[in-house]
Amino acid sequence: MRSGDVYDAIPKVELHCHVEGTVRPATVVELAQKNGRQLPSEDPTELYRYTSLNSFLEIFWLVQELLVDRDDWARVAYQSVVDAVPHGLRYREMFFTPARHLAAGQDLAEIVAGLSDGIEQAVLETGARCALICDIDRAYGGGAGLELVERLAALRRSGRGERVIGLGMDSTERGVDPRDFADAFRLGESVGLRLTSHAGEDTGPDNIATALDALRIERIDHGLAILEDEALTRRVAEERIPLNVCPNSNIIIANKYERLEEHPFRRMRQAGVLATLNTDDPAMTDLDLGKEYRTVARALGMPWSEIEEVALDGVEATWLSEGEKRSLRAQFERELAEIRPSDPSEVV
Ligand code: ADE
Ligand code: ZN
Q1: Is the pLDDT of residue 1 over 80?
Q2: Is 201 in the pocket of ligand 1 (CB under 6 A)?
Q3: pTM above 0.90, yes or no
Q4: Is the C-beta atom of 14 inside 6 A of ligand 1?
């Protein structure tokens, strides 16, 4: 039997989700105890109210600091995947952002090994798959970004980094020039990493264009501001550059709109943009993938047929091989046919 409602049953890809933003509140408390850290509140969810991206990041960094050894990383990666599967997750490309851990002396190889341990266990138990994207933390600057990618390149050369398929960038956006990270992205590209970056979440469309041109990213995370620039919207649509959008996050974390009804997700798709749906930091925003799809569909009046297209576009936007995409798409089409309501032209 399926759990949850029909939105949970939609087979889903997720391409914008931070492992540190998926840590269960109970695990936050246990990790704090285990690692001797004092939290500002006994109930971490009391801290989960944000007035801006930067106010969110203060709390996100607190949670990040609780991850201190290989077992911690394994535990959160495992829980992250098994928690998402009842809400439809079939395949995820998941961010981790190790800047502050490396600055505190952790070893990138141990972090990746821990994440890989946890993911492997979750894959065995659930059949869902998960690759990793290593994110640069913009707050640490271009030098630290380049150093991180140098470590990542060495890890790949030693044959221990194969679960990391991509390089991304997140954290604070205002007042940071994406060009500062061009060397890091060139190195990432030269060692075969796929490229993405958060852009246009907390700033205007110029940052999206700069990330595309100066960093040569293949996907855009958030890209919320894109419709403010018609030519850029046309370019992104024509080149099928995926935008990995997180509507609930944009309300709760970045505080960009009062209500989901105002979110441009559907308008992005109507403009021809390959825009996917994602949760960003679900455990810190009381969210899951089923809820993301359900709330967006209802708030924006998206009929079931459009929601099916969103799920299928997720497959196109992955970094799987063409053959893997074909077989995942065929699996999604079979699953969608089984749950399709009698009138797919209606909002469910
Ligand atoms: N790290 C985790 N969530 C983030 C977001 N929404 N924007 C930037 N950095 C993040
Ligand atoms: Zn994000």
Answers
A1: no
A2: yes
A3: yes
A4: no
**For 268-320, how does the pLDDT look when each residue is reduced to its tens digit (9 = 90+)?**
999 999 999 999 999 999 999 999 999 999 999 999 999 999 999 999 999 99
Q: How many domains does the chain have?
A: 1
In which domain, by residue range, is 314 found? 3-334
Asked if residue 16 is part of any domain, the answer here is yes
In a domain, 301, yes or no: yes
What 66-70 contacts at long range (C-beta under 8 Å, 24+ apart), as own/partner pairs, is 66/23, 66/28, 66/31, 66/32, 66/35, 66/37, 67/20, 67/31, 67/101, 68/35, 68/101, 68/104, 68/106, 69/110, 69/114, 70/110, 70/111, 70/113, 70/114, 70/117
Which CATH number do you get for residue 167?
3.20.20.140
Ligand 1, residue 253: give the atom nearest the CA: 6
The ligand 1 atom at the shortest distance from the C-alpha of residue 171 is: 9
pLDDT tens for residues 67-113? 999 999 999 999 999 999 999 999 999 999 999 999 999 999 999 99
Concerning whether 173 is annotated as a catalytic residue, the answer is no
Query: Quick check: helix, strand or coil at residue 192?
Result: coil
Displacement of CA 192 from its chain's centroid (Å): 20
Ligand 1 proximity of 247 Cβ (cutoff 6 Å): no
Q: Is residue 344 part of a domain?
A: no
In a domain, 339, yes or no: no
**Catalytic one of 20, 93, 201, 308:** 201
Cα distance between residue 98 and residue 132, in whole Å: 12
